[in-house]
Design goal:
By secondary structure, this protein is of the alpha+beta class. Helices cover 44% and strands 22% of the residues. β1 and β2 form a beta hairpin.
Amino acid sequence: MRRADRLFQIVQHLRGGRLVTAQKLGTWLEVSERTIYRDIADLQSTGVPIDGEAGVGYMMREGFDLPPLMFTRDEIVALVAGARMVRAFGGAAMARAADEALVKIGAVLPDAERDRIARTEIHSPMWVVSDSDRQSIDVIERAVEKRHVLTIDYCDEAGRSTARDVRPLGLWFWGKVWTLVAWCEMRNDFRAFRIDRISSLVKTERIFKPERGKQLADFYRAVERSESYGMGPTARGM
């Protein structure tokens, strides 16, 4: 982590009027307490209103605002490229959020860098993901976060259609195709479902709790085991 980024993180951790020790800051930022003491002293010397002392802890007085964000040229290009890719390939809500994020970033950039957003010539096609798939991506993304069981109608590669309840664990984008990795209650195993083969998607009110052997970390371990034996990934859309 760059020192400038570390100083920014220290200020963020000290917000809210709570006392934070140098040991805890060092653990969060993976540096020594001595480094934290030095960083705190440098922040105080520049006028950042941090109170406290070594061995006790630090806190920041209310009312302090950070100066406008400063991004490097490469960081601006990366942010613009990422936002445009999300707008092209993500869900409908993701696309709107990407546009709003670019507006907010532009609002805090210095005048000399603000037009770099418009001058970044990195683009993505807008016709790859259908509107229905965009809506499905948004529903799935929220279901992953809230742990809602999904009821889906799915057509596999052989053309067989099935209806099943799944526990959504994560979304993966493969450059053109989105897949949902989930625990399939019908197969009692992990499965990967292509979003463009889901013909119907309903978010149920049933909440699933994390269970040993049925979580994303377990899926990763299953894939690693199968690949170590030359069997390929274990999760299939069936």
